[in-house]
Design goal:
This protein has 400 residues and is α+β, with helices and mostly antiparallel strands. Helices cover 37% and strands 21% of the residues. It contains 12 helices and 24 strands. The strands form 9 sheets. It has a 4-stranded antiparallel beta sheet. α5 (147-189) packs antiparallel against α12 (350-393).
């Protein structure tokens, strides 16, 4: 028998206010949207928390995020969260376990119907202006079968979730293995024998190296506004062009900074293990320039294949050079133009460079294919879990 039970009969608001001690560390939790659950914030002392009210969390608490409940921001505190803390944005409730299993309730609010009901009691416009009204919780009705049936549904969903996680892991493992193969291949190609068989030159002697435009300059005279590449646009082996910004420069500076097909773009800093990050420009955006935290490396294509040079820079040999030469802080590292110019470039015959590029390109295409399949598989698995949740709370799994 299925009953539609008011959430007011299932949940009881329970807030355990904490008297903050200035020297005590408090680990706060939050709840992500779209059913993604609870996350932990960095611990802070009571002094750092300031005058914000904190409430203690207990295992089994059902938690809503009042500003994004309409996006399915719900969570269930586990043993790990027991004794942590939350702010007023995350009211905590105890579940009436005489009629409802907490996990069953959590799964219900991952369904479209559950999320829609939370949206109905979250008046206002989108974003933080749309706040859930705790007083209106009794207006939400949850379809409750008997407890034994709830437990069977929970077991069914959890078993499926485990299989989905395993499938995701296998796909992710295949991508990781392919990427490791590419790194190992570059290491095998650019070995001691390779370096001993061909001449080597400092990068500054065989390439034109140019920093980009400095942002925020005061300009006079005739100007032109152009798209430019930021550090965020330059990734390891590709360009992320989802967001392109514009900057004004003097019209006379256009030739100085205009990107050309075959230019290598390298970031000057970032995470220490990502030094040497860059890609070869293929003219993806017309009349594009780059900012000053990106180096543009331009070579004569009759002597050097830019893709070969990029492969050398991104190889273990190249990354080791930049890590050794860079200026490093705790989490970040950077290189300057002098260090970049000193990078030693080995010059095999142009035909050999093209063969190396073709071989590495073949492996790279395998990685791209695997990543695309991973995205497609993830979407299919998400849709599968969503479908099972929807069927479960429409009664289609009950009695099976």
């Amino acid at each position: 028998m299925i009953e539609n039970v008011s959430l007011g009969n299932i949940l009881k608001l329970e807030r355990r206010r904490v008297n903050l001690d200035p020297d005590t560390l408090y680990t706060e939790i939050g709840v992500r949207s779209f059913g993604k659950g609870i996350f932990h914030k960095e611990p802070r002392t009571g002094l750092e928390v300031g005058d914000k009210d904190l409430y203690q969390v207990q295992e089994g608490d059902f938690i809503l995020q009042i500003t994004f409940a309409w996006e399915g921001a719900v969570g269930l505190a586990s043993k790990q969260e027991d004794g942590m803390y939350c702010s007023t944005r995350f009211p905590t409730f105890r579940v009436n376990t005489a009629i409802c299993e907490p996990k069953y309730l959590l799964f219900y609010f991952k369904t479209p119907d559950g999320v829609a009901q939370l949206g109905n009691i979250s008046p206002g416009s989108a974003g933080r202006n749309r706040v859930l009204s705790v007083k209106r919780i009794p207006e939400v009705f949850v379809p409750l079968p008997p407890l034994d049936e709830q437990r069977r549904i929970i077991a069914h969903i959890e078993a499926l979730a485990v299989r989905i996680a395993e499938a995701r892991g296998l796909r992710q493992g295949a991508v990781a293995e392919a990427e490791a193969l590419l790194t190992a291949t570059k290491k095998a190609l650019f070995n001691d024998t390779f370096f001993n068989n061909f001449p080597a030159f400092a990068l500054g002697n065989i390439a034109e190296i140019q920093s980009g435009v400095t942002l925020g300059r005061e300009l006079s005279g005739e100007t032109i506004t152009l798209p430019y590449l930021r550090v965020a646009n330059v990734q390891d082996g590709y360009f992320d062009l989802a967001e392109i910004k514009e900057v004004s420069i003097r019209t006379s500076e256009f030739d100085k900074w205009q990107l050309e097909i075959g230019d290598i773009l390298l970031t000057e800093g970032g995470d220490w293990d990502k030094l040497g990050r860059g890609a070869v420009w293929q003219g993806e955006i017309s009349n594009c320039i780059h900012q000053n935290h990106i180096f543009r490396v331009r070579v004569n294509p009759q002597i050097f294949n830019p893709y070969y040079l990029m492969a050398l820079i991104s190889s273990p040999y190249g990354k080791q050079y930049f890590q050794n030469a860079s200026k490093q802080t705790t989490n970040l590292a950077s290189i300057n133009q002098r260090q970049l110019k000193a990078f030693q470039v080995v010059q095999p015959q142009l035909e050999d460079q093209y063969q190396i590029v073709e071989y590495l390109h073949h492996i790279q295409m395998r990685i791209i294919t695997l990543k695309r399949l991973q995205v497609e598989t993830t979407a299919e698995l998400d849709a599968l879990l969503s479908s099972v949740l929807d069927r479960a709370f429409k009664g289609e799994l009950w009695g099976q």
